[in-house]
Design brief:
Blueprint: H1 2-10, H2 16-31, H3 38-41, H4 44-49, H5 54-100, H6 102-108, H7 113-119
């Protein structure tokens, strides 16, 4: 649920135009091109309505695909580190709670070998 909350906070209708523009600009830079004037003149709705992606591939889709890869890698790495740190802190907090509560600590550790054998459920 935490990952879904991060994804929703980052990828929403308010941020999509910024993400698309950044991916396009990075893709243009990585491909070594200049931004095309044709992009502003394209009638995207009629091309998408006819499912005609050919005229859109070189000027729009290819730069966005190429530019989206480094953005995805960067965001993925950043959120991986944040999630890893969060899980690690959560686990440490649980260990601290267990160690600070003597009832929990001693309940989970058998005192003798006989206690350990009796703690194992027997199967018929």
């Amino acid at each position: 649920m935490i990952a879904a909350a991060f994804g929703t906070a980052f990828g929403n209708p308010l941020t999509f135009p910024l993400i698309f523009a950044a991916a396009y600009r990075i893709g243009i830079y990585l491909l070594g091109r200049q931004p095309s004037d044709w992009v502003g003149e394209a009638n995207l709705f009629s091309l998408l309505g006819q499912l005609d992606f050919g005229p859109l591939w070189h000027p729009i889709l290819k730069p966005m695909l190429i530019g989206g890869l480094p953005l995805a890698a960067l965001c993925g790495a950043a959120f991986y580190v944040l999630t890893w740190q969060g899980v690690r802190m959560f686990q440490q907090q649980g260990k601290r709670r267990t160690l600070n509560n003597p009832e929990r600590r001693y309940r989970s550790i058998p005192e003798t070998k006989a206690d350990a054998r009796s703690a194992v459920p027997k199967t018929d």
